[in-house]
Design a protein that fits this description.
Elements: H1 19-33, E1 37-48, E2 54-59, E3 64-69, H2 71-74, E4 86-96, E5 101-111, H3 114-130, E6 149-153, H4 158-170, E7 176-180, H5 188-202, E8 207-212, H6 226-234, E9 239-243, H7 251-255, E10 258-259, H8 263-270, H9 274-309, H10 313-356, H11 358-362, E11 368-370, E12 388-392, E13 397-401
Parallel strand pairs: 3-5, 6-7, 6-8, 8-9, 9-10
Antiparallel strand pairs: 1-2, 1-4, 2-3, 4-5, 11-12, 12-13
Helix pairs in contact: 4-8, 5-6
């Protein structure tokens, strides 16, 4: 029997682990126990570090959990994260060892309730994309100066007021026709498609604006229906879609000839600004006036040049008469000059000819003797004794007989 002073029996010593070992074991157990799963909650305490990582709390009515979403994963989100947003995150349950803090490491995030709808959206987008419904080559540019603009939307939509206000501000001269159609709720997609077809059948406009303000994905869902996308592509009139906010994308946006981030932007895209047109007209008028003035100045200079060349016939005749007189004088001077030149040349030729005249030599006492054959005797050896020869003198001739030669 043990009394109050009796010591208990010794217990075997338990193994001792470090804090790091304990937390690592708990982390491994959590990650094995809970694979990647979707968790729904409200964003709170959202902050973005300089590194680009997001830190926030995901909470519901009775609990909350710390979360981290690294930069590489956050880059895939095409909408703005805000405190109070209801979201669904695909996360890994884990433990942050340095702080011993339970947390979720978020791999993906979507708005709450978007799961099934978003999957439908992706399936339809992929299907229509394979068919070539979204090809850029098939899309038409809206006219720069439409004669009439059609608006397809609900008469109660705030987007209609924004569009009409924008069109009136930019260019009140362009007529606008509103084709009423519901933009949310059951059967809205079929009505939108029917209204687009009716607008084409009436052929009153050169461009159609399909617009709606922002809302949840459920509100915008009629614009994600296949019949609306096919009605847009079947339209002979270019269709500009401005649905929701800038971050909202629908199937209608991909099918449209032009996508605008908002209804107001759609109105601006489809309508030329009156002020800009007036400025262009004024600029064209200035250019036209400048060109007309330049051409008029050129024409005046051309007329002046023609006037300078234009001479009265009498003055032209007088000028020609003076020219003829001058040419006649020059001709007379040239004739007299040539005559004197010819006379001087003739005298020189006569003097030269006189120097060559053999009779001129005879006049100085010389004579020319010919043999019986008429050859001129230049050597006494040419004459034979008893031969008759003829000697020509300056006046007359003498015939004689050769007695002897020396």
């Amino acid at each position: 029997m043990q009394n109050e002073f009796t010591q208990p029996a010794a217990q075997p010593a338990a193994s001792v682990v470090t804090v790091s070992q304990l937390l690592r074991s708990v982390r491994d157990t959590l990650e094995r126990r809970f694979p990647l799963l979707w968790v729904r909650g409200e964003l709170s305490n959202l902050s973005r570090a300089g590194s680009g990582h997001y830190y926030f709390t995901l909470k519901d009515g009775s609990a909350q959990v710390d979360c981290v979403m690294f930069k590489s994963r956050a880059a895939a989100i095409d909408w703005e994260l805000r405190d109070g947003s209801q979201v669904e995150v695909r996360a890994l349950v884990t433990l942050y060892e340095p702080r011993g803090r339970f947390q979720l490491t978020v791999e993906a995030m979507r708005r709450a309730g978007l799961g099934p709808l978003y999957e439908r959206f992706l399936r339809l987008k992929e299907k229509l994309e394979r068919e070539g419904l979204f090809e850029a080559a098939a899309k038409r540019a809206p006219p720069e100066h439409p004669a009439c603009i059609g608006v397809v939307t609900s008469l109660k939509a705030a987007a209609l007021r924004d569009v009409l206000t924008t069109l009136a501000r930019r260019n009140p001269a362009i007529p606008v026709i509103v084709y009423p159609a519901p933009v949310q709720g059951e059967g809205a997609a079929a009505r939108i498609a029917a209204v687009l077809a009716r607008a084409n059948a009436r052929a009153e406009c050169e461009v159609l604006l399909l617009v709606r303000g922002g809302g949840s994905i459920e509100d915008l869902w009629p614009f994600n229906e296949e019949n609306v996308a096919r009605a847009i592509r079947a339209s002979r009139i270019p269709v500009v879609v401005g649905v929701g906010h800038e971050t909202d994308f629908t199937i209608a946006d991909f099918a449209a000839d032009r996508r605008a981030p908002t209804p107001t932007a759609a109105a601006e895209l489809a309508s030329p600004a009156r002020n800009e047109l007036l400025a262009r007209v004024a600029d064209c008028a200035r250019c036209l006036a400048r060109e007309m003035r330049r051409r008029l100045e050129y024409a005046i200079q051309s007329v002046d040049a023609c006037a300078r060349r234009l001479v009265h016939p009498a003055a032209r005749l007088a000028a020609h008469q003076g020219m003829v007189t001058q040419l006649a004088a020059r001709l007379g001077f040239a004739f007299i000059h040539n005559l004197h030149a010819c006379e001087a040349k003739l005298q020189r030729l006569q003097a030269t000819l006189a120097g060559l005249d053999p009779t001129a030599v005879l006049a100085r006492g010389y004579s020319i003797t010919y043999n019986a054959s008429g050859e001129v005797l230049r050597d006494s050896a040419q004459a034979r004794s008893g031969e008759r020869i003829k000697t020509t003198l300056a006046r007359g001739a003498i015939e004689s007989e050769v007695k002897s030669t020396d």
